[in-house]
């Protein structure tokens, strides 16, 4: 009965990756500034925050859920950690822990409402999106927190390999992708996440506590949002209460572009990274080409569709 | 080899007056049930007689509206399949609870993955894919199913192959009781016989088996006792050695009442 | 090579910023410069602006013109750009501190609010004002500055220019609603406010589209005659509404001028290496159909000629 | 295997309706101005545009799709119809037809990409969202079109019943809900929409052309967005290029609050109307209570969750 | 009553050299197929032998990679189930293509709803729910299935009841050929016999039936000819009147080769 799902070819990251390569090839012919390590390093910096959020989003989408609150939770986390540092003079590690604790707590609330109250994730996270936004505004008084200690922005520093600057934050993001990929692939809890998304009832009947799996996923996603908070603070050097307003759609886009099914149970987290990079490459490449901003939006619309089309075609070819 | 079970064998599962309603439909209407140690108990009945509903209650998959369940004489309260599984009850569901996009090996071990030895396995819960694969091949070979690759997604299997996955899983992990809801329905002659063989082997390990089937020859070949379900109740429990197939079917369909049967036909 | 200049606005679709881009494009064409443009996704999207700035520098821009979405959060990115030899000019909104950029071509939103508040006070002519405000959305500095400036100009207690919190109930405002600067949401806000307090007779709106929405709601309730609507922005459509009696008065600002000045400065920098500096107030003019005693204002014709800096 | 779906009780509009009544009861105790026919008429006016969009969205979600582009398509439609009237002096009926034609065309593009290219609706409509937005901005020069003929705003006029003003547009919206409800319930194509969402493969195997059904749904949704364009023009009396930016989430929220499953095949369109009203009642009621805007957002978040919770509970009770 | 079909009866469906590959798995490996007018053709074979894949090609549900299909001697190109359905071919799929959330009546008539008379029906396509309900009750009564309400969602039915819905649908609407993939697998004794009876009735209306089944007694009871599928090919077509059940099973499982059978056992 799940036949539409059944029709989907086994997901790989190959399709999205081909789309990414094609996009890069295109921009390389359009701007001689595009193809440089420094520029790629820049793109990686730019997708660092949304890329990290998208890891958590991938986990949730794999369970056939969706999280609209991710960006706002991220903003809340960055305000909590910066204000804890600024107002109470807490040391960076303590303040960061509190910030991540706050995002994990929000994840827990999402998870409890999804599992215990059995509410649809869309509505739950729509609710917590608003709640997190309001708390962020109230707590920060809508003021950007600029007193940020060095310890909190350390991830925004970079080291050099040859001519290229590489941000520690980017390395962290890449490491998180790798770890999550291994976790999903090689560990029992990771496989249970797929199972829950694939067929919740079958998973329940095999004696796995689907509630525990879901709860774990939402909390874990919250932790990822918290790490994204930290990366965001590191990147812009401040706690920004207005951050995170479009990150939910951006993150979901990265997940879907990366080949993960919104119906759950199918997808690879590395694809999400590729999806996030596709968006970053578009934005960067179009600016380098000097496309004016309204036209950028137009072209982005077309390119997003072309990207999944390429993905689709490359899969057909592979069959 | 176990000794043949008889009326003195202790009751492993007992249920009294189970009732389960779905809206206006009453699936179970005060059903009783008894499973003795070491026996193969067949459950037969018309479509919609409430067989699946009955075993779902026993397996914790649904919670009955009324009635009591005893496991080894102790009142059992299964709130979820996890509880039943913890008590060592393994079930093959009629709609084959499998995760379609996952591989055969993964489905066989879902929730009971083999872990790597040492830290990796115990703390990080890393699974041992190689070992799981090898085990899967062994289990599936037992059933003589020609499946080419254990890393195939279950959704790509034929109907019968899929059923074999579910059967193999239950047989492999049962500690206490095995429940099978029409395990041979989609199977070919050869594969069906292999499953019967497997059921016998499980029984010989000392585990009682509940077998739901519409296949009368299979039932009469293998069952120690036959529980006849009818209209959400237990109509009778008969002894296949002392009753004919046609009499059994007559009771099952309501053509004959239990009183018309000779006393020895009834099992105790 | 032609000088490359980047313009980063808060959003793509706000007519104010569209006008700004128009001005910049025209000036760039005139002076033979290449203009790159980008915008945040939403008002308040600081990260998007940072990304745009980085990409523009990668594309070779030596001057960045930016209307910062977040006065504080943008500063580290500006510092980074300046380190790479890029001149950064803030347009429309100052950074905090304002000295973080090389130069600021802007208007004072708080002052614009004060002006319109003073006008409103005079226009009410001693009648007891029952005030509704249709603001931008929570946490937005421009929304707060204009709103608080209005309260101040009207003679009510108001937070200072730095605050991002709206002074409200304490100051005696009858109803506050968010309009998102949009006609439809402004209309909804006004309708609900009227329901809350049918006696409302003075409406301040964040910009003219919101004012148009408010007027529509008032008209539907048959109250448009007895209510004074004041606004800030001064777009051509808005000034036309002033002429049509929809809006009593508006504080006009000049995005086109800001942008043109910014582009000129950028070209100058590319040619001579000379940076501009300091704050240039591009001014605020009160445009009103009916002048009121004690408050300076220009008529609609002047407003149309000037609208958003046409000249 | 679709057992999570199978677990859902048959959907009715009763649950959401109870949530609506509870919400109204709450606000009635908080503000004496809330409970009046005039106020309800106002709320109906305010949800008229998003309510009409949400009809189209419901159809798409019933087929297990999602449409992110709905709001932007609506904005495009209103610009096309007003500019056609203003620039070429076309009569209202002609201009309106062209506007609805444009939105239907966008629906067709969405539909073709979903059916022929087999792309996920999320990505397709994310692409067309951007495309429609850019076209709207370019075509209108980001300027509001204020020269609008009376014929185009006629639906914004009202008639009186007793003391209460009722907008023609509201009547139109209610009529559309009724017609769509009957269509989905009583006609063969309507039932096929449910079937496609319920089990696309089974529907295909029974010999229904699922592509045709989907294509029809997307085009029909486009027509609804076009009618929403007209209602938006009538309501604000102008063609607003900045309209429609939040209508996609709002419409999806109305659909989900109304009890339609995001997994397709289950739901009742009248529930969507209730869902839209719930959102409208919150906004109205909170303003009447004088809750300030940040707190409104906070409370909205909590109330949205409470609304589905009420819905959930009332269903449990009914079983 | 129709006359018994024989070797002279015209071929209704013929397929030559069908090949269907799924990745590395070859489901069909050059399979031939012949269905004669007015006959009941049983298709048997081990699990995974390619039976379902074969009939999916005939029903347009999948498109074979190679090979040709002829309908009444004309080359047929089924691009989708719609094409096959237009040609009057009705199919019961093994995984029971039903829409779970829709009612029994709706599923029975899906894609062929009974419309109201006049304008309402022809232009507005309003369906006649009452008539559909009455018809559904009649059809399901034919199968003697005890289903209480036709407005029940199919997902609430027991496994066997669900199968009856699919069978009833195919039998009711077939114009030319009926294909049934294991229609009795989940059925009880009584219901299974009713389906066999139904198949006979369909045949007596003059429509040929393809019946896939693992139930040998059923097959021998009803089939005019038996197509034995093995490893994606047609191993043999045998005549149930001149071959024993055990020989048939032996060929099916590969224990015996076709050459070892007496010539008369083979059907033509
Ligand atoms: N979730 C449900 N909702 C509503 N009715 C149900 C549900 N599950 C089962 N039923 C009804 O309960 C009755 C018994 O169903 P059950 O599945 O137990 O029968 P069964 O004996 O297993 O039949 P079969 O041999 O066909 O599998 C049937 O009439 C069925 O329609
Ligand atoms: N969609 C698919 N993807 C990959 N492999 C498939 C797919 N469908 C079928 N197969 C494979 O093709 C082979 C034949 O399958 P088929 O379903 O035709 O067997 P069958 O004869 O109907 O078996 P059964 O009696 O168990 O129903 C099997 O090995 C199966 O795993
Ligand atoms: Mg059953
Ligand atoms: Mg098969």
UniProtKB/TrEMBL annotation, chains A, D:
GO terms for cellular component: plasma membrane. GO terms for molecular function: transmembrane transporter activity. The keyword Thylakoid does not apply. Keywords: Cell membrane, Membrane, Transmembrane, Transmembrane helix. It is found in: Cell membrane. Pfam families: BPD_transp_2 (PF02653). InterPro entries: ABC_transp_permease. It is a multi-pass membrane protein. The chain crosses the membrane at residues 12-29, 49-76, 88-113, 119-139, 166-184, 213-234, 255-282, 288-309. PANTHER family: ABC TRANSPORTER PERMEASE PROTEIN YPHD-RELATED-RELATED, RIBOSE IMPORT PERMEASE PROTEIN RBSC. This is Inner-membrane translocator. It comes from Hydrogenophaga taeniospiralis CCUG 15921.
TrEMBL record, chains B, E:
The keyword Thylakoid does not apply. Keywords: ATP-binding, Cell membrane, Membrane, Nucleotide-binding, Repeat, Sugar transport, Transport. Pfam families: ABC_tran (PF00005). InterPro entries: AAA+_ATPase, ABC_carbohydrate_import_ATPase, ABC_transporter-like_ATP-bd, ABC_transporter-like_CS, P-loop_NTPase. It comes from the Bacteria. One of its GO terms (molecular function) is ATP binding. The keyword Acyltransferase does not apply. Coiled coil: none annotated. Residues 13-256 form the ABC transporter domain. PROSITE patterns: ABC_TRANSPORTER_1, ABC_TRANSPORTER_2. This is ABC transporter-like protein. It comes from Hydrogenophaga taeniospiralis CCUG 15921.
């Amino acid at each position: 009965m799940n036949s539409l799902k059944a029709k989907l070819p086994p997901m790989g990251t190959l399709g999205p990756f081909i789309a990414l390569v094609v996009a890069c090839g295109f921009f390389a012919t359009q701007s001689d500034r595009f193809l440089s390590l420094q520029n790629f390093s820049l793109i990686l910096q730019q997708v660092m925050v949304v890329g990290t959020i998208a890891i958590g989003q991938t986990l949730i989408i794999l369970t056939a859920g969706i999280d609209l609150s991710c960006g706002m939770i991220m903003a809340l986390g960055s305000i909590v950690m910066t204000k804890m540092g600024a107002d109470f003079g807490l040391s960076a590690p303590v303040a960061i822990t509190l910030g991540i604790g706050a995002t994990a707590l929000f994840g827990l609330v999402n998870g409890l409402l999804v599992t215990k109250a059995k509410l649809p994730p869309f509505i739950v996270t729509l609710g917590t999106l608003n709640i997190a936004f309001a708390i962020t505004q109230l707590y920060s008084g809508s003021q950007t927190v600029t007193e940020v200690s060095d310890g909190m922005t350390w991830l925004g520093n970079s080291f050099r390999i040859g001519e290229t600057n590489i941000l520690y934050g980017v390395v962290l993001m890449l490491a998180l992708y790798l770890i999550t990929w291994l976790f999903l692939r090689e560990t029992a809890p990771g496989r249970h996440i797929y199972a829950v998304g694939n067929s919740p009832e079958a998973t329940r009947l095999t004696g796995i506590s689907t509630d525990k799996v879901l709860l774990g996923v939402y909390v874990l996603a919250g932790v990822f949002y918290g790490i994204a908070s930290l990366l965001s603070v590191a990147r812009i050097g401040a706690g920004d209460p207005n951050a995170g307003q479009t990150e939910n759609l951006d993150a979901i886009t990265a997940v879907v572009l990366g080949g993960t099914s919104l119906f759950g149970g199918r997808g690879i987290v590395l694809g999400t990274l590729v999806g996030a990079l596709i968006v970053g490459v578009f934005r960067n490449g179009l600016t380098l080409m000097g496309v004016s901003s309204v036209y950028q939006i137009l072209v982005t619309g077309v390119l997003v569709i072309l990207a999944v089309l390429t993905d689709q075609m490359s899969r057909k070819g592979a069959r | 080899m176990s000794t043949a079970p008889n009326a003195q064998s202790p009751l492993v599962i007992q249920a009294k007056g189970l009732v389960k309603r779905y809206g206006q439909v009453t699936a179970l209407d005060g059903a009783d049930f008894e499973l003795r140690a070491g026996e193969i108990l067949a459950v037969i009945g018309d479509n919609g007689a409430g067989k699946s509903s009955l075993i779902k209650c026993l397996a914790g998959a649904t919670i009955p509206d009324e009635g009591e369940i005893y496991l080894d004489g102790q009142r059992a309260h299964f709130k979820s399949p996890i509880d039943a599984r913890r008590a060592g009850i393994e079930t093959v569901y009629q709609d084959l609870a499998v995760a379609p996009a996952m591989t055969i090996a993964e489905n066989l071990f879902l929730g009971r993955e083999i872990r790597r030895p040492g830290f990796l396995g115990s703390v990080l819960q890393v699974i041992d894919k190689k070992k799981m694969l090898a085990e899967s091949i062994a289990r599936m070979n037992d059933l003589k199913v020609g499946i080419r690759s254990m890393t195939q997604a279950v959704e790509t299997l034929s109907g019968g192959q899929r059923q074999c996955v579910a059967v193999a899983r239950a047989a492999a992990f049962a500690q206490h009781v095995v429940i099978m809801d029409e395990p041979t329905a989609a199977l070919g002659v050869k594969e069906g016989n292999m499953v019967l063989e497997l059921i016998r082997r499980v029984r010989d390990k000392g585990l009682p088996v509940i077998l739901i089937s519409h296949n009368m020859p299979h039932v009469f070949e293998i069952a120690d006792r036959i529980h006849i379900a009818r209209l959400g109740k237990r109509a009778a429990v008969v002894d296949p050695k002392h009753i004919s197939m046609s009499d059994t079917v007559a009771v099952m369909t309501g053509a004959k009442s239990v009183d018309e049967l000779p006393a020895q036909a009834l099992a105790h | 090579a032609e000088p490359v200049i980047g313009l980063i606005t808060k959003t793509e679709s706000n007519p104010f910023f569209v006008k700004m881009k128009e001005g910049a494009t025209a000036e760039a064409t005139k002076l033979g410069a290449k203009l790159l443009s980008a915008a945040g996704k939403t008002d308040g999207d600081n990260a998007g602006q940072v990304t745009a700035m980085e990409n523009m520098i990668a594309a070779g821009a030596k001057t960045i013109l930016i209307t910062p979405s977040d006065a504080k959060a943008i500063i580290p990115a500006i510092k980074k750009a300046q380190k790479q030899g890029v001149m950064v000019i803030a347009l429309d909104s100052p950074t905090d501190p304002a000295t973080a950029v090389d130069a600021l071509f802007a208007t004072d939103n708080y002052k614009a609010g004060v002006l319109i508040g003073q006008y409103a006070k005079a226009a009410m002519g001693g009648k007891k004002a029952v005030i509704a405000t249709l603001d931008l959305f929570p946490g937005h500095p421009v929304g707060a500055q204009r709103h608080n400036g209005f309260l101040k100009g009207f003679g009510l207690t108001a937070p200072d220019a730095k605050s991002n919190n709206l002074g409200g109930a304490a100051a005696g405002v009858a109803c506050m609603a968010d309009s998102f600067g949009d006609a439809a949401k402004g209309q909804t806000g006004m309708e609900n406010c009227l329901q809350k307090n049918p006696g409302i007779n003075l409406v301040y709106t964040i910009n003219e589209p919101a004012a148009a929405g408010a007027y529509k709601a008032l008209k539907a309730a048959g109250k448009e005659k007895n209510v004074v609507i004041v606004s800030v922005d001064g777009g051509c459509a808005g000034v036309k509404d002033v002429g049509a009696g929809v809006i009593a008065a508006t504080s006009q600002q000049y995005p086109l001028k800001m942008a043109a000045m910014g582009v000129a400065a950028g070209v100058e920098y590319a040619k001579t290496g000379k940076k501009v500096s300091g704050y240039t107030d591009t001014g605020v003019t009160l445009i009103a159909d009916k002048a009121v005693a004690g408050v300076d204002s220009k008529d609609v014709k002047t407003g149309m000629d000037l609208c958003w800096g046409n000249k």
